[in-house]
Give the backbone structure.
Amino acid sequence: MLKFHSRLLEERFAQLAYTGTTKLSLWEVLNWFDKDGGRITKSFWSKEVYSEWLDYCGEDNEVPHFSVVREFSELGMTKPSTFILYLNDNYFTSSEEDDE
């Protein structure tokens, strides 16, 4: 990864850390990680991107885990156009106890 791309990714990680979510376009991921024509798999997120996230957060801190949502531009598309990263700590689902 080029230093310039690393800085751009660092900005996205800052957004993820402070707001709990960030968005990456497919072209950004392909370009920043030199994935020309390559597939973006679950192992890519868990190995390559998460290792960058660990570097960003630092080894001294407790590193929150993130999840990835694939966003498709049109119904029937096979490649996602956008990836939404969100911190698992910020994910909230309603339960029956909350409704009372």
